[in-house]
Design goal:
single chain, Nuclear Transport Factor 2, Chain: A, 6-stranded mixed β-sheet, 5 helices, 6 strands, globular
Amino acid sequence: MAVGRSAAALLVALTVAAAVGCGGSSKPSPSPPPQAVANDPGPTPPVSDLALPPGVPDESTGPAADASRRVINNWLKALRHGDVKRAAHYFALPSKFQNATPVLTVNSEQERIAVNVSLSCGAVAIEMGGAGVYTIVKFRLTKRPGGNCGTGVGGTVRGAIRVERRKIKEWYRLPDQPGGQQQAPPAPAGPAV
């Protein structure tokens, strides 16, 4: 099946991108002019490819919009019931997706299916709040048909989701605590069934 191969290829690319995303450049940086050295506060820590993009909030500042709540809950229901294709159709084309990976641009039907397949758990939203155009969601992970959540079942994760025109336009995995470090998704306990 072509979609399965495309999804598998994207999942391999996600894994490779996450593994290579922290690498640095082998090119030496040019030396600053001598007068700049005296005013240089020191090296700036590199920004990881896995870091949240600038402007993506990691905590809510008010209530979530009802329209966004509906889209997110309907998407979660489809995913939780194993209807990955239906869940995928809640994502806009194009959209942005980041789950402890570099930010991916989802441009095709196969890619939006693949990012939903990559979510090995189902989930229920247990908290939602708004932060500008984003909805900050705390999820409780569940089993789902076709996925293998392993030890993640019952755990919680957080995300920042931007809904536009009844579609998910941006989806970012947030640190477990506001201001915390990005965490990897839960590992499955074995091969997916």
